[in-house]
Amino acid sequence: MENVLKVGERSYPTKILITPEELQRRVQEMAAVINQDQGNAPLVVLIVLHGALFFATDLLKGLSMPLQIETVRIKSYDKTVSKGIHLLTPLPTNLAGQDVLIIEDIVDTGKTITFLLEEIQKEKPRSVKVCTLLDKPDGGHQCILDYVGFTIENHFVFGYGLDLFEYHRNVPYVGYLVR
Ligand code: IMP
Ligand code: MG
Questions:
Q1: Which of 11, 17, 7 has its CA nearest to residue 174?
Q2: Residue with the nearest Cα to atom 3 of ligand 1?
Q3: Domain assignment present for 128
Q4: Which of 23, 40, 156, 163 has the fewest CB atoms in 10 Å of its CB?
Q5: What residues are paired with 100 via a beta bridge?
Q6: Which ligand 1 atom is at minimum distance from the Cα of 141?
Q7: pTM of the model
């Protein structure tokens, strides 16, 4: 079923890709796997805002180890040049010797996560893992993703935190633009 969403004066035909029920079920499965892998060892979770906000709040409620919750904002001007990426907020200062789990919404070209991994490694953590709700392999990335919610086709997706031109992050499903 098509659903037309407005952003300003423009209208976009969209469809649901992942329902709220599918999201909740999969996110709880992911939390269970992370619990098994990490045991009771403390974990620093680094939420990449704003896209991973909804995913992270659901995921973190299912985690059972002691958690330090941190956020980071990243700006990417132009995805075609990696120099266009920088931190809008500083990284937490106490990552040395810690297990860090990055929580992302989607990995597409992989430039954002590659940049963030390089920045975090400078802080000398004990380990760094990547947890992403969505993996878009057609974006061409070569990243090792430790935890993936859903592998999707080359759609432009939005909802459950991801934006459609800065709007509609709050729809409870993941939708995609119908081209
Ligand atoms: P990458 O650097 O190309 O891997 O892109 C990652 C970032 O681009 C994600 O954190 C998202 O914020 C954004 N992004 C990539 N694809 C989409 C999409 O389909 N919808 C919304 N945001 C996206
Ligand atoms: Mg993002």
A1: 17
A2: 109
A3: yes
A4: 40
A5: 44, 128
A6: 4
A7: 0.95
Domain span at residue 98?
Answer: 17-76+84-177
Q: Which structure tokens are listed for 26?
A: 């999969």
Please tell me the distance from the alpha carbon of residue 86 to that of residue 18, in angstroms, as a whole number.
Answer: 30
Alpha helix (H) residue ranges in 82-178: 111-121
Residue 99 contacts residue 39 (beta carbons within 8 Å): no
CATH number at residue 121: 3.40.50.2020
The predicted-structure confidence for 97-154, as pLDDT tens digits, reads as follows: 999 999 999 999 999 999 999 999 999 999 999 999 999 999 999 999 999 999 999 9
Which token pair is 90?
Answer: 């500083």
Mean pLDDT of 63-71: 98
Count the alpha carbons within 13 Å of 133 in the hemisphere toward its beta carbon.
30
Q: Which of 15, 102, 106 to mutate to test the pocket of ligand 1 (most atoms within 8 A of CB)?
A: 106
Instruction: Count structural domains, the chain.
Output: 1
